[in-house]
TrEMBL record:
Family: Belongs to the class-I aminoacyl-tRNA synthetase family.
Lineage of the species this protein comes from: Eukaryota, Metazoa, Chordata, Craniata, Vertebrata
SUPFAM superfamilies xref list: Anticodon-binding domain of a subclass of class I aminoacyl-tRNA synthetases (SSF47323), Nucleotidylyl transferase (SSF52374)
Species: Staurois parvus
Cofactor: Zn(2+)
Name of this protein: cysteine--tRNA ligase
Length: 508
């Protein structure tokens, strides 16, 4: 999916709000007595979710039954995506699929691509490219990597550089509301003290210091930049405060608000984004909208780190494997199974052993499906099947899987429940002598195969490998004239035959 142009995005936003005006009922954000994660009212999804705002598990209630609104921080596109990024996006893709496929909740997801930033400027200088061409190249690569990992694209991609006027207006209103100030150097800072104890929703849990570089005119070290004045040879936009560019946090607040307004159901990102990034996003939005609670649920995914390395996988630490390197040895399905076999908010260790374990889990599942299908076709002759045990086991699995997924998306428990069902299925699929035919029970095995295949498909794992069909080209002898492929192609004995002929010779 391409980034929306400004006009296209406005049209989409209008459609969204026109179609489901009740996505933003009234003009008020959720009321939060303490300004810290009040449980929202609204449509009950039937899911319990760990909310970083309240630091506890609570009912996931969304504003509109028609569609949940979800904002996801996107990548800063200055280098290749690595498995640490992939892990976060795949885990949230699984959660998104669980919500839509298992709980019937439609989702409107917005993701912003950060295409201007200090790292992009630095890297573009190293590679003697313009920051914009560097950003576009890595944005395209990011999208291809996500597609290769079967991560569904967001409903709307947005780019920071295509929305600078909106960002400037957003900052102006925060200043007008008394929560930000400009300095003589042409910077604009958020005045953290102006919101008192409302600042610090995530600080206690994740970090306790804001390390943004100081400006001599900054009122407090905790204040953070909304607008940065341009240094020589940096890209810039003209603003009421001089030439400059937006700070990092303001882009997410502005663009999320531009689509969803004052009320957001779900906000996601890696745990390292909780502070200061999400903390500052909240401060900006609540200062802009003058509301008690802008985003209702903040979900954070745990880090991925290499075995024996306590640090998270990151570019700056040079301890990473790119998505492309990974895909040379393993598949998207195996990585997804690796992600399913841990809780999304836990740190997870990547190693040859852990990915091989995921590969083996998939092999066990696929091998059971093959055996069960062989049994269905009468190619496996077994002792009489104890159907009651299998029907009971299948029904119990369905209940356990739904309960696990409703419990803060516990995919590990859901996969375990399915593996238990496979264990019961395999115990009875023992081949016996081919001479004697026992009574057969295809229905129960058919139902088990259907359920397991559907379970995997709903989570983004395709069990039906695409068949590679050989193609043979039959060529008429001509080296000088015009060659064409001659339809219809003939499919015979699992092979496509294509007649490749020369038009000139044929007409002669
Ligand atoms: Zn963000």
């Amino acid at each position: 999916m391409q980034c929306l142009s400004r006009a296209g995005w406005r049209l989409y936003s209008a459609l969204l709000h026109g179609r489901a005006g009740h996505i933003r009922p009234g003009n008020l954000c959720t009321s939060a007595a303490a300004g810290r994660g009040a449980t929202p009212s609204g449509h009950d999804t039937g899911i319990q979710v760990y909310n970083s705002l309240s630091r506890k598990k609570e009912e996931l209630r969304v504003h509109s039954a028609a569609a949940a609104t979800w904002y996801s921080c996107g990548p800063t596109v200055y280098d290749h995506a690595h498995l640490g990024h992939a892990c976060s996006y795949v885990r949230f893709d699984i959660i998104r699929r669980v919500m839509t496929q298992f709980f019937g909740i439609d989702i409107v997801m917005v993701m912003v691509i950060t295409d201007i930033d200090d790292k992009i400027i630095k890297r573009s200088k190293e590679l003697t490219m313009t920051p914009l061409s560097l950003a576009r190249a890595y944005e395209e690569e990011f999208k291809q990597d996500m597609m290769a990992l079967k991560v569904l694209p967001p409903t709307i991609y947005m780019r920071v550089t295509e929305h600078i006027p909106e960002i400037i207006s957003f900052i102006q209103k925060i200043i007008l509301n008394g929560h930000a100030y400009s300095t003589s150097q042409g910077n604009v800072y958020f005045d953290v003290q102006s919101i008192g104890k409302r600042y610090g929703k995530f600080t206690g849990t994740f970090s306790d210091i804001n390390t943004e570089p100081a400006d001599s005119n900054k009122r407090s070290p905790r204040d953070f930049a909304l607008w940065k004045s341009a240094k020589p040879e940096e890209p810039f936009w003209v603003s009421p405060w001089g030439k400059g560019r937006p700070g990092w946090h303001i882009e997410c607040s502005t663009l999320a608000s531009s689509v969803f307004g004052k009320q957001l159901d779900i906000h996601t990102g890696g745990i390292d984004l909780a502070f200061p990034h999400h903390e500052n996003e909240i401060a900006q939005c609540e200062a802009y909208h003058q509301c008690e609670q802008w985003g209702n649920y903040f979900l954070h995914s745990g880090h991925l780190h290499l075995k024996g390395n306590e640090e998270k996988m990151s570019k700056s630490l040079k301890n990473y494997i790119t998505v492309k390197e990974y895909l040379k040895s393993y598949s998207a399905e195996e990585f997804r199974m690796f992600c399913l076999r841990s809780k999304y908010k836990s740190a997870v260790e990547y190693s040859k052993d852990s990915i091989t374990e995921a590969r083996n889990t998939l092999k066990i599942i696929l091998s059971f499906i093959d055996d069960a299908k062989a049994y269905l076709k009468g190619q496996l002759n077994c002792q009489p099947i104890q159907e009651d045990i299998l029907w009971h086991s299948l029904n119990k699995t369905k209940v356990n899987v739904k309960a696990a997924l409703a419990d803060d998306f516990d995919t590990l428990r859901a996969v375990d429940a399915v593996m238990d069902l496979i264990h019961h299925g395999n115990r009875q699929l023992k081949t016996v002598s081919k001479e004697f035919q026992h009574a057969r029970s295809p229905l129960v095995y058919g139902a088990m195969v259907n359920y397991i295949e559907q379970f995997l498909e709903q989570l983004g794992i395709s069990v039906h490998q695409k068949q590679v069909i050989p193609i043979v080209i039959i060529q008429a002898p001509c080296s000088t004239h015009i060659w064409v492929s001659f339809p219809p192609y003939v499919y015979l004995s699992s092979t496509f035959y294509i007649l490749h002929v020369c038009l000139v010779c044929c007409i002669k």
